[in-house]
Amino acid sequence: MEMDIPLTINDIREWLITNAPKYHEQKSLEFPPQEEGVFFGIDKFYTTYGRLFDFMRYYRYKSKCDIAVTDLMLRDFDDVEKLAEWAKKYRILGSHSLILFDIDYLWDKHLEKVLIEKDLYADKEPFLNMICFIRVFQHLYWDYALHEEDISGKDIRVIKAELIKIINHNYKPV
């Protein structure tokens, strides 16, 4: 399944369904299958299936991210209290549910495709609001700690300027 063109969600879903029996057969073995000629190398099919399956598990958060980003767009960007409320409201989604998505798949902020593994990409389009959410959450929650009790002294101009830059680059209206 190596390719340099981005896969669609349907491509990945169909491949997972089609190859599920083979994967479950291999998974039932005492040890994962080994790739021929590779010292301690686990079979490429086996690892690719696992990576694609994990990747698709993140896709279930798409609608939650659409809602969160829409909620953000309704807030006054000049009001640090409103932005702090948003960061607190979506704390679980951003600091637990999606934290590894950023680390695993969005290592290059300027990439036009989402890297699943070497030479295997997904189309970025379905993930735009997820990426927007992750970037905004990172900015508000981690970088500026707007979830803390005392947010006085936070420079709203700097926060707002970066927020607008993130949204302009990643937001897709739903």
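[next item in queue]
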Amino acid sequence: MDFGFWIAANCSKRFKTDSNTPLSQGMSALITHFGGNRFYERDQNNKIVDTKASTKVMRYFYTTEKGWIDMHHFFRVANWARQFGETLAQGGGSFGEAWQRVTGNASANSYEDAASNQAGIEFWSKYGEQIASGEISAYDAVENFLKDLGATDPEKAPNYSMIPHMIKETPSVTSDDANGLKGEDLRKKFEEWWNSLTEDEQKRIKEAHEQIENRR
């Protein structure tokens, strides 16, 4: 697993103990960096292309212990834990999902959200004081934490070939399990959803995957 992108996002900076400003700025930089995402659409020739809002950010990891992790959720809730404590951070994550449902956000309760929020809290609980004191760099802390979660290449996730290439009105699969939807449970959930699609819908997703892979 290549964690080199953390450097560009200031994750490798060692924060000092004499001021909260560097730590606050570093966490904000990471939240902003991972707020980017890769978005696709089809052009007039039915080819997969990036939308204008698309950014080439490696935002998602699959882990054997918590399933998929969304690093924007991860760092945002880790920062809340830093600022307000674990209980309020947990509440903030739950409120965020509820607000998305109320406002009709297409990603509300997506299957990786709750696990990503919980992972952020656990990360800060384990490494927060060490990062703040300069005992460990944020880069090393994140790398250690994700390795402990069993982070692996996204292609190794059991649902990888079934992931839709475009965001619909509702997520393909939802979950509020803070321990993560993973392994066989993840595969079965996605197979249920996949089997609910028409043959044409399945074909379009498969073709999109092939086009995206060829563009790497």
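[queue empty]
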